Amino acid sequence: MRTFFRFLCLLLCIVLMMPASLASSSMYESTRDPDPIPVLSENEIPPTPEGIEHYMLICCDRWDAKLENLGHTDGLILVTVDTYARRVMLTSFIRDMLVLRPDGDFGRINNICGKYGSGKNGIETLVGVINSHFGLRIDKYIVVDFGQVERIVDAVGGVDITITDKEANYLKNYRISASSTEPAINKGGTYHFSGHAAVIYMRIRKVQTISGATQDVGRTERARTVLTTIGDSLKDVTYEQAVNIMQAVLENTVLTNMTAADMTKALTIALDLKGTPIESIRMPIDGTYELMPVAGMATQQIDYIENRKALDDFLFGSFVVME
User: For the chain, how many structural domains are there in total?
Assistant: First the structure.
């Protein structure tokens, strides 16, 4: 049981580690029209291989998202488990990806819910767009917001993070509560971060990390720091702590279509795959996208044929010898 809770909490936090954007925010005027996007129809999408399960994790760019107003869905992470090859895979999708909407117009993938309505209809339209662009059959999803990730981190007891002087200055200028870290942040050093402070830390983009990374690379590095520490802290979680974490997860979901049977199956899979290294890929892969401003928005035009092939190889390229 405790492995499942560790696994689930890490996945909910991983939503924050995806790159926010690959575009320059100052270049919004296009000199040409976008290229046609070769989406797949329902009949053209191959069936999901036996033994593989997809779970779409979606994070809204809000601290207190409501079903009727989810805002932008900036965090898009697909969790794929292969029970035959014993693999756990994460696929992140950039928020400014140019997609073909169901109405035939171009748009940014993180704006789908704003166009087609929040709540179940908007989320299922978003999942359908991902399926048609990448040749997948995702049907299970979980939607969270920043505030819910904050409370889940609090449920695991917070996280110890070592920060630089510049990071300390940023966090102080952001005016996080002095009580959100122990001790209160003064300069570079190691502090115990509450959930709120940890989310703010993971969202830093303009300040270098300890390794010197900035922007989206730095954000990814910070998220990995948080995830690693959370994972270490949960290695010896007690049953009572696991119950508290479970309650926090159940109470901090904006929307999901997973049934009790789905949750039970996920629990069984997580227990069976304990200790399995997590593999990851980003969509789009390097060298397959370019800036394409559309309607005053910075978007990325993607080579979907190349990325569908890369994702298919990543997710389904395993082989298993069976007796």
Answer: 2
Range of the domain at 217: 157-233
Is 271 a domain residue? Answer: yes
> Are 138 and 166 in a shared domain?
no
Place of tokens 């279509």: 257
pLDDT at 237: 56
In this structure, what CATH number is given to the domain that contains residue 274? 3.30.420.590
φ/ψ of 75, rounded to 5, equals: -105, 115
Neighbours of 7 (CB within 10 A): 23
Please, what sign has the CA dihedral across residues 207, 211, 213, 216? negative
25 within 8 A of 292, measured Cβ to Cβ = no
Together in a domain, 299 and 277:
yes
Q: Phi/psi of residue 160, each to 5°?
A: -90, 125
Extract the tokens encoding 224: 């990995």
Tokens found for residue 13: 């936090």
Burial of 130 (0-12, 13-18, 19+ CB in 10 A): buried
pTM: 0.78
- What's the average pLDDT block by block, 10 residues per block, for the chain (323 residues)? 46 44 48 88 96 90 83 84 90 88 93 85 95 97 84 83 90 85 92 91 78 58 64 57 61 81 76 74 88 84 96 86 49
* 7 inside domain: yes
**Alpha-carbon radius of gyration of the chain:** 20
Residue 323 placed within a domain: no
